[in-house]
Every structure is written in structure tokens, then in C-alpha cells.
Design goal:
The protein has about 130 residues and is an all-alpha fold. It has one domain. Helix content is about 85%, strand content about 0%. It has five helices and no strands. Helix 2 packs antiparallel against helix 3 (about 70-90). The chain starts with a helix and ends with a helix.
């Protein structure tokens, strides 16, 4: 398994683990609006990550190479829809903005964690 495949697999799994841990923690220790912010933010960013991954896998498969314009168009459509959802959630006071921010940080935390794990492997591999 290449490093790219290993990272993608790790990030994908870690997204869901962090999402569930953050959601359950939010439900236990905070207000319902704050917990809803974490849940909705985590769902938005995790679903977007999976949809982007699927789009790139399809676009870069040897049987069917898509134009980069198609990939960008799909990306911007998802970005606009996500922005509208976030706008409605905040403007109608369905969620607490800080909770939403925490939920939206799930993928960033997964990527950071994956990077630290790979760096640790590289550093300790070179030390031997």
C-alpha cells in the first residue's frame, strides 16, 4: 500500500471517529444548540470530503478521464451548497457558531493527525 492510499484510508476512518467522539462529547457536556453545531458541522465537512474523494477517484480513473473544469465545477457547487447550509444554520440560530466551527474542523484535525503519524514513522524509521 502506498503512502497516499494509507493516508487516505487513515483520514477517512479518523474523520468518522473524530466526528462521533466530538458529537457524543458535545451532547454530554454542552447545550443542545452547541451539540447540534458540532453534529451539523461534522456532517457537512465529512460528507464533502467523501464526495470530493469519490469525484477525484472517478475523474482520475484510466477508463474515463474528466476535464479539470468538470472537477472544479463540482467542487464549487458543493462549496456553494455548503456555504448556503452554514448560512441558514447560523442566521436562523439553529446552531451555536462555535460548535459549528468545531464540527467543521473534523477533517482538518484528521489530516493533521495523519501527518503527525506519518512524520513519526519517517523520523523513527530514519533513527534506526
Amino acid at each position: 500500500m502506498t503512502i497516499q492510499q494509507r493516508l487516505l484510508k487513515f483520514i477517512t476512518r479518523t474523520n468518522w471517529v473524530l466526528f462521533f467522539v466530538a458529537s457524543i462529547t458535545g451532547l454530554i457536556v454542552s447545550s443542545p444548540e452547541f451539540a447540534k453545531g458540532i453534529i451539523f458541522g461534522g456532517l457537512i465537512v465529512t460528507i464533502n470530503f467523501h464526495m470530493l474523494s469519490r469525484t477525484l477517484k472517478k475523474a482520475l480513473s484510466p477508463q474515463k478521464l474528466l476535464s479539470h473544469n468538470v472537477i472544479l465545477a463540482k467542487y464549487y457547487i458543493r462549496f456553494i451548497i455548503s456555504g448556503l447550509i452554514i448560512f441558514v444554520l447560523i442566521s436562523k440560530h439553529y446552531v451555536e457558531p462555535i460548535g459549528l466551527f468545531i464540527g467543521l474542523s473534523v477533517v482538518v484535525a484528521s489530516i493533521t493527525l495523519a501527518t503527525m503519524c506519518e512524520l513519526k514513522k519517517i523520523i523513527f524509521k530514519e533513527a534506526i
